[in-house]
Amino acid sequence: MNQTQKNLLIYDGNCGFCAGLAERIQKNSVKPIEILSFHTVSETELRKIHNQLTIDRCQGEVQWIQEGNRYPGFFGVRILLWNVKYIRYFVWILYLPLIPFLGMFVMYVLKKIRIQLS
User: Fold this and answer.
1) What confidence tier does 3 reach under pLDDT thresholds 50, 70, 90?
2) Cα 115 to Cα 113: distance, rounded to the nearest angstrom
């Protein structure tokens, strides 16, 4: 069902904080990644990328598509960071017990204040 095998980061391109972070991640990526603002595509195009993608899901949290699999929010960022120079050596910390709860909370807070961070 998944029609893409590329590494793709789908984010909110209207947020300066998100856009800056996405560009830095792309620049420091070990393997090439594509970044895409969900504002630039239709719901039909999102479904072509991955059958579970919707505008609502993309508005709610960042989406990481790798090898045809979709990883939302904190879990997507955790997998994405394995691909970023220097940071990749510390990503194992995000797999420690209880850290995913903290990570999901941090992502929730960032979602609420990201416009103020721009």
Assistant:
1) very low
2) 6
Q: Are 44 and 16 in contact (CB under 8 A)?
A: no
Name the burial class of residue 75, with classes exposed (0-12), middle (13-18) and buried (19+) by CB atoms within 10 angstroms of its CB.
Answer: middle
- pTM value? 0.88
Confidence of residue 8 (pLDDT cuts 50, 70, 90): very high
